[in-house]
Amino acid sequence: MPHSAINTDLANFIQASPTPFHATRSLAARLLEAGYVPLDERDDWELASGGRYFVTRNDSSLIAFSLGQDGALQRGLRLVGAHTDSPCLRVKPQPELEKAKLWQLGAEVYGGALFAPWFDRDLSLAGRVTLRTDDGELVSRLIDFERPIAVIPSLAIHLNRGVNEGVAINPQTHLPPVLAHVLEPKRDLRQLLRDETQRQHPDLTIDQVLDYELSFYDTQPPATLGLDDDFFAAARLDNLLSCHAGLRALLDSDGEQACLLVCTDHEEVGSASACGADGPFLEDVLSRLLPDSTQRIQVLQRSILVSADNAHALHPNFADRHDGNHGPQLNGGPVIKINNNQRYASNSETAALFRHLCDQAGVPVQSFVVRSDMGCGSTIGPITSSRNGIRTVDIGAPTFAMHSIRELAGSRDPGYLIRVLRTFFDADRLI
Q: Which amino acid positions bind Zn(2+), per UniProt (predicted)?
């Protein structure tokens, strides 16, 4: 498929996925359309040879698997891992603020967000609402206001003359978004959520909104840009780009091998949760696929995980922030991420396998090593590998402005990543 069509599909996926809850719902909808069968962890599972299934946890993490032909599972799993969450601003439990006759909501920073790009953006609000119906039942529903309803205005330079020399942004006092004028009677967020949930879910009879998990997000849609359409800009490329690539590769695979896609929440805050990579979700699914513990160890030792999470491309205005021999380029293909202090899980064998797969797929490949005098980020790769003993390679599409409200990738790199992941899923043999 031409990269323009792939990027249109990626843009649609990102637009439908303003929060991890919505991303998981988007993944599940596409899997259902492709014939994958939903499973519930609270039920017994009856898995058929060659079957295709998926399971979610917390509405924000998903594992999909295709069992392949007879004997495929015993030959080892081909796993692709990514994460559904991105840095953002989350609404606090009691967030209402009234200042200068304006109504604001207090927001907590989720993950390692870049603060400055959040100013002067057209923001909306989305997430999960938990409510009590008129019948006394507790239910949760996803909502998305979709339209711009909030903004964080910058302070004019006339009142902040030193701003271009660098001014620290205080997340407590500088980041609460403005939503409206103060009116009488006072505005009530829970009543606003009740009305919006009722509008989006007219089948419900809502008594009261009891709690919520809501995120502000930028309403500007993704775009392909540049004189020659070389670039793709969007919110949440880290890491919805990888979730989308893993999904497309799984759906496009030939179905002969045992393949598994893991998209978990909370990576941006350490993955230590019931539905994160440092929790038991993957292990619980694997134990049901392979109930015998000895056989499970044998299969996992024949398995490979590709941990897909975006990589830092060489920024032309900050080239000195990269090691001189390891500066990935946009549109230069997926990047193998290496760190000898185990911030990434790649080793010589798994990196060699990925280079081999790229060669087979006709895809360029690059490598990244952080400067020796700088700290290194991490991924779900080392976490998953250490918990399950699966050999892992950390890779990702090169991007600019990681953790900004709007990030930038090369327009050809999403297609490159899909091609090599599909080659991985279809490979007859691993190392």
A: 83, 158, 403
Q: Which amino acid type is present at position 414?
A: P
158 annotated ligand binder: yes
Phi, psi of 316 (to 5 degrees): -65, -25
403 is in an annotated binding site: yes
Domain count, the chain: 2
CATH code at position 311: 3.40.630.10
pTM above threshold 0.85:
yes
CATH code of the domain in which 214 resides:
2.30.250.10
Residues 77 and 103 in one domain: no
3-state class of 103 per DSSP? strand
State the Cα–Cα distance between residues 344 and 145, nearest whole angstrom.
37
Cα distance between the two ends of the chain: 29
Cα-based distances in Å from 117 to 149, 217, 235, 409: 17, 12, 11, 17
Q: Where are the alpha helices (DSSP H) in 175-280?
A: 189-200, 237-252
Q: What is the residue range of 292's domain?
A: 3-86+235-426
Q: Is 356 annotated as a binding residue?
A: no
Let me know whether 69 and 128 are in one domain.
Answer: no
pLDDT per 10-residue tile (average), the chain, 431 residues: 86 98 98 98 94 98 96 94 98 95 97 97 98 95 98 95 89 97 87 96 94 98 97 97 98 96 97 96 97 96 97 94 91 95 94 97 95 88 95 97 98 98 92 76
